[in-house]
């Protein structure tokens, strides 16, 4: 239902007043059907009125072909992003508007429910996962809230729309979405019906693709309330279906104190790094989550590489920055600090070194050794690596002449 007469909580939303939005709404009105904003723009602006997202979602009672025809006639670029689901995207300047025709469920086959188009906004809202995601807003900023989402949002409650187990069985990813939204919007205690449903249906997570789990997990890990959400995931048995390794919650908490800007891969590394985690286990987890090649390599480094020794001389730290790169070494420093290996003052000094010091290039190349009379083959590679190690151990200061002299010494000349 809508709020009290004249109650327009979103009337001053920036994204509602901009010329692109007003133009789009004007064109959609020519279909003769109602259109409303839905989803995150409504939910998030109720909490933070100053928001002005560039990507906005709308629901409309108009059919997708009618929407497309009116927009194209008005000279607005339209992308058929999901015609099978009734979705098109309108592009106006730097703004993107995803417009989806209202739907209602006819039969449900899990994620692949049979739906039909409708003009009933409440029926469409009933298909949403949580009450805070089921609100909509019209062109005048009037809020339509059929399931108490506004009250839940204000109270920090994350509740499923309707029967929680039925909602979950429609798409088991909603289990992870529940914990992600709790980590972002929730306040304890969590909704007991939702928790019970997540616990009862946790096995369904094993049916999901790695790509879908990855997306939700990485977004969950950077949410403000991730420690509390992880506790609930562990209590309900959900966590073991997502991260089947030993979890180190306390290390993550210390990392967040030390480096609150830590990205999700670093946070994941803090959670799973430990004596029982080796390269094969990390690679298996990365494969399950369908991490990219770059993400996999980074997670492998952060979970298996030796951590920096804060007592080591500066030359040792410089050598590691040369080997690892400044960012990777900074991540390892943060992990070391999260294990209590160094105090904040020492950490900040080493982080400053990693950020400000640019390693010089190693002065020698294979062609230099060839010119010095070293024959091509394995011996050349061995000598080059040995000289680089000598250069690193010496503080990365030896020049080309000194390195060639060391080469002669090693060859007995």
Description:
There is one protein chain. With 413 residues, this protein is α+β, with helices and mostly antiparallel strands. It has 4 domains: 155 residues, Beta Polymerase, domain 2 (2-Layer Sandwich); 81 residues, cca-adding enzyme, domain 2 (Orthogonal Bundle); 117 residues; 45 residues, no CATH class. The protein is built from 22 helices and 9 strands. The strands form 2 sheets. A 7-stranded mixed beta sheet has the order 3-4-5-2-1-8-9. The radius of gyration is 28 Å and the shape is elongated. The termini are far apart.
Question: Taking Cα atoms only, what radius of gyration do you get, to the nearest Å?
Answer: 28 Å
Biggest β-sheet, characterized? 7 strands, mixed
Number of helices: 22
How many structural domains in the coordinates? Answer: 4
CATH topology of the largest domain: Beta Polymerase, domain 2
End-to-end distance, in Å? Answer: 91 Å
**Number of β-strand runs:** 9
Keywords for this entry:
4 domains; 413 residues; cca-adding enzyme, domain 2; Beta Polymerase, domain 2; alpha+beta; elongated; seven-stranded mixed β-sheet
List the helices and strands and how they pair.
Blueprint: H1 14-17, H2 19-29, E1 35-38, H3 40-47, E2 55-60, H4 64-73, E3 77-82, E4 87-92, E5 95-101, E6 103-107, E7 114-117, H5 121-125, E8 136-137, E9 143-144, H6 149-155, H7 164-170, H8 173-185, H9 192-201, H10 210-221, H11 226-235, H12 239-242, H13 249-258, H14 264-272, H15 279-288, H16 293-304, H17 314-324, H18 326-338, H19 344-356, H20 366-371, H21 378-393, H22 400-410
Parallel strand pairs: 2-5
Antiparallel strand pairs: 1-2, 1-8, 3-4, 4-5, 6-7, 8-9
């Amino acid at each position: 239902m809508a709020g009290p007469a004249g109650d327009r909580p979103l009337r001053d939303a920036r994204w509602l007043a901009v010329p692109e939005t007003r133009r789009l709404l004007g064109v959609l009105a020519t279909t003769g059907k109602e259109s409303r904003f839905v989803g995150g723009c409504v939910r998030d602006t109720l909490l933070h009125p100053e928001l002005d997202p560039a990507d906005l979602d709308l629901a409309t009672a108009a059919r997708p072909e009618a929407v497309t025809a009116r927009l194209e006639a008005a000279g607005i670029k339209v992308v058929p992003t999901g015609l099978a689901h009734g979705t098109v995207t309108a592009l106006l300047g730097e703004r993107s508007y995803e417009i989806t025709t209202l739907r209602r469920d006819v039969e449900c086959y899990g994620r692949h429910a049979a739906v039909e188009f409708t003009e009933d906004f409440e029926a469409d809202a009933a298909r949403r996962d949580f009450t805070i995601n089921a609100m909509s807003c019209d062109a005048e900023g009037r809020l339509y809230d059929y399931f108490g989402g506004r009250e839940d949002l204000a109270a920090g409650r994350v509740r499923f729309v309707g029967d929680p187990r039925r909602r979950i069985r429609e798409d088991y990813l909603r289990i992870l979405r529940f914990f992600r939204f709790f980590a972002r919007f929730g306040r304890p205690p969590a909704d007991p019906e939702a928790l019970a449903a997540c616990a009862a249906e946790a096995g369904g997570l094993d049916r999901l693709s790695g790509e879908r789990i990855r997306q939700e997990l990485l977004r969950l890990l950077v949410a403000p309330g991730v420690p509390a959400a992880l506790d609930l995931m562990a209590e309900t048995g959900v966590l073991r279906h997502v991260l089947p390794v030993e979890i180190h919650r306390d290390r993550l908490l210390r990392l967040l104190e030390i480096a609150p800007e830590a990205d999700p891969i670093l946070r994941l590394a803090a959670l799973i790094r430990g004596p029982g985690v080796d390269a094969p286990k990390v690679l298996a987890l990365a494969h399950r989550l369908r991490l990219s090649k770059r993400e996999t390599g980074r997670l492998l480094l952060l979970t298996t590489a030796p951590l920096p020794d804060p007592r080591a001389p500066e030359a040792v730290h410089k050598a590691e920055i040369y080997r690892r790169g400044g960012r990777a070494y900074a991540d390892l420093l943060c992990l070391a600090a999260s294990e209590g290996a160094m105090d904040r003052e020492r950490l900040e000094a080493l982080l400053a070194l990693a950020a400000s010091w640019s390693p010089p290039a190693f002065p020698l190349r294979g062609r230099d050794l060839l010119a010095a009379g070293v024959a091509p083959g394995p011996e050349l590679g061995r000598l080059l690596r040995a000289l680089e190690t000598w250069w690193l151990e010496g503080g990365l200061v030896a020049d080309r002449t000194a390195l060639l002299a060391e080469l002669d010494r090693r060859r007995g000349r």
